[in-house]
Structures are given as C-alpha cells and as structure tokens.
From TrEMBL:
Record's keyword terms, sorted: Heme, Iron, Metal-binding, Monooxygenase, Oxidoreductase
SUPFAM superfamilies found in the cross-reference section: Cytochrome P450
InterPro entries cross-referenced by the UniProt entry: Cyt_P450, Cyt_P450_CS, Cyt_P450_sf
Recorded family membership: Belongs to the cytochrome P450 family.
Cofactor (UniProt): heme
Protein name per Swiss-Prot or TrEMBL: Cytochrome P450
Lineage, top ranks: Eukaryota, Viridiplantae, Streptophyta, Embryophyta, Tracheophyta
C-alpha cells in the first residue's frame, strides 16, 4: 500500500471472490483501482465525442435524464456514494441561478478555444476569461 493518499485514483479491496460487470474475475484480497478522470473521457462509456463538453447528453426533448451514478463516478456510487454530493449539487445550482439572474456572460476573446490543462483536478489552460455585465432589466 502507498504511504500517502493518492487523489488521482481510487480503489477497493475485494472482501470475497467476485465477478466485475465486464466478466473479469476478482479474488478475495485483490485490489481494483480506477481513474475517474480517465473514465470521464472514455469513448467506450460516452461515445466518440467523449472529450467534448455537451450538456445535451443528459437531455431528452429538453428534459433532464439522470444517468447511473456508476457511469459518472466522481462522487462514487452505490452504498459508499459521497454524503456531500447532493449538497454540492445544490450549491452549484443556487450559485448558477444567482449569477445568471444578475449578470450576462460572454467570452473575453471569442477567437480563443477553451482547452483543458491536465492535472489532478481539472483546470482551463490559460484560464477561461469572461466578461460579466450586470443585467439592467
């Protein structure tokens, strides 16, 4: 085992012999690790456009369609799902509503492509510079 905490991967230790959904056999005591960052970009899971930001993936006829928490594993899934997941989602929604209610946003430079900088946590390469102007009406 590692003498430090690894934040870029997560894993579990099998308590009993088991078979994973893909048919791989796991014996008691085997450790299985996964990379949530990589899983979020796998064409096998998300399709050929996995690297593209497409919020409409979760919409059908304009209505949100929830997916399995095992597909988007950032908050884990099953009995060990993050206790703070719903709180984090609620905070995100409230902040988004407040910001969109009082401000209009546009990119500072429309010609600049938004690109990721790959690190332990996701960052925008060079930042994502936007102009926020107060809504007057």
């Amino acid at each position: 085992m590692f003498p430090f905490i690894c934040t870029w991967k997560d894993g579990r230790c099998a308590q009993v012999d088991d078979v994973l959904p893909d048919g791989h056999k796991v014996k008691k005591g085997d450790e299985v690790y996964y990379l949530a960052y990589a899983m979020g970009r796998m064409p096998y899971i998300w399709g050929e456009d996995a690297e593209e930001f497409q919020p409409e993936r979760w919409l059908k006829d304009g209505v949100f369609q929830p997916q399995s928490s095992f597909q988007f594993i950032s908050f884990h899934a099953g009995p060990r799902i993050c206790l703070g997941k719903e709180f984090a989602y609620r905070q995100m929604k409230i902040l988004s509503i407040v910001l969109l209610r009082y401000f209009r946003f546009k990119l500072s430079n429309n010609a600049q492509d938004a690109a990721y900088r790959v690190t332990i946590t996701l960052h925008m390469k060079g930042g994502l510079h936007v102009c926020a102007t107060p809504r007057t009406t």
